[in-house]
Amino acid sequence: MKKVLFTGIISMVGLTLMACSGSGSSEGSSSDEGKEEITVWTWPNNDQTFENITIPMFEEEHPDINVKVEAFGSEEYPQKLRTSLTAGEGPDVAMVEIANVSDFREMGTFENLNQEPYNAAELKADYVDYTWEYVEGDDGSVFALPKNTAPAAMFYNKKAFSEAGLPTDPDEVHELMKTWDDYVEAAGELSTSGEKWAISTPNQVKDTIIQQNGTPYYDEEGNLQIDNETFMDAYDYVEQLDDMDAFSPYVEFSSEWNGAIQNGSVATYFHGNWFEAYLKNNSPEGEGNWGVTYAPEYKGQSAFNDGGDFIGIVKDSEKKEAGWEFVQFVSQNSENLEKMYTQDALYPAYEEALSNEWMNQENEFFGGQVTNEIFAEVADNMEAPSISVNDPVAESGVNDLLSNITESDRSLNEALEQAVSEIEARQE
């Protein structure tokens, strides 16, 4: 399996889901006499997954441990965790999204799992190969275990395609939109200004293409490269689609954006397999109206990734043994992984899980399609560049660039010059 670039896009989902607040403490007391309580920090919707799926099973298997989960809004979470860990406060166990891995891995505030009694290096072969490169530092330290990956594809509304006189079978849709040039051509059939749109947002085009090609925001020497060939091609496709009013006017994951999912006014979405659960939650009446197929190819590559997360023990925790039991359970327990996948569409990073039958069941929401036939092949062919602590800054700057050329009628050269200037002023 090839390495894969994750981005912080999946973090946007938390903006539309329940957000909780609170503060953790490695010195938290137990609510049940004789039991040890650990606090786990995460973001929506992972708190619900833990509370509804993981914790009941874990506490049954570990009756001497209570698990308390606290969730914080996805945009708030990284900074809150960073500030708390720096102050020597916070939870016993914490989740980290791929967009923030470089930062937290280098901070030194997570327990090094590549030492006694954890010996996590012995577990390396048990996880999807590329995921280990994100948790292991240059010095061989391991700050977390991989939890989930997110092979990605194109989700499409069958009714929108049918009404446009286009095919709805996954193989036929992929053949129709085999390349990005093909996609642009078909997008005109799916778009009616002010009424229907081929795609939701410009950043979906950019994110998909740079991940398909394994192109990072920074080169190996740390130089910003948002004006290289791959990025410029992505901007070009965005401008072509914008010229035909193919982008919806809605902010990603807003209530209006969710409304477009429900009424079928947006035809395609480019996301990780986790979007299966998002569609079900936001379009309960849409069963049978959706399909999944490969994304249009860029330079012969259709596979890309859109998400992923990790879980580790906070160094200052006084309950590391209990925390380690939970970290292993979350990322390795077969029943937990099965329920996280079948109920919440969370793709396991644990190799052993990938060969189970429950990964390949017919999905009634998608008209009986075995969606993992798409995602499994994507997972085997994903590309990835290196990641940088400045990636979130660069991603934000490029997304602003896309807004400037599609909403503010700025020229690409002007918007690019502004983006470079703003990113370089903010980066570390």
Structure description:
This protein is an alpha/beta fold and 428 residues long. The protein has two domains: 8-150 and 306-361, D-Maltodextrin-Binding Protein, domain 2, CATH 3.40.190.10; 152-303 and 383-426, D-Maltodextrin-Binding Protein, domain 2 (3-Layer(aba) Sandwich). The protein has helices spanning 46-61, 77-86, 101-107, 129-135, 158-163, 170-176, 180-190, 202-212, 229-243, 255-263, 275-282, 320-332, 334-344, 372-381, 391-406, 412-426, and strands spanning 36-42, 65-71, 93-97, 145-157, 197-199, 266-272, 290-293, 304-313, 347-348. Strands 1, 2, 3, 4, 5, 6, 7, 8 and 9 form a nine-stranded mixed beta sheet that branches. Strand 1 (36-42), helix 1 and strand 2 form a beta-alpha-beta unit. The chain is globular, with a radius of gyration of 21 Å.
Structural class based on helices, strands and sheet pairing:
alpha/beta
Give the CA-CA distance, first to last residue: 32 Å
Radius of gyration over all CA atoms, rounded: 21 Å
Strand content: 5-15%
- Helical proportion? 40-55%
Return the string of H and E elements. EHEHEHHEHHHEHHHEHEEHHEHHH
The CATH architecture term of the largest domain is: 3-Layer(aba) Sandwich
Q: Main beta sheet: strand number and arrangement?
A: 9 strands, mixed
Number of domains: 2
Q: Averaged pLDDT, please?
A: 91
Spans of at least 5 consecutive residues whose pLDDT stays below 50 are 1-30
The name of the CATH topology of the largest domain is D-Maltodextrin-Binding Protein, domain 2
**Can you tell me the CATH class of the largest domain?**
Alpha Beta
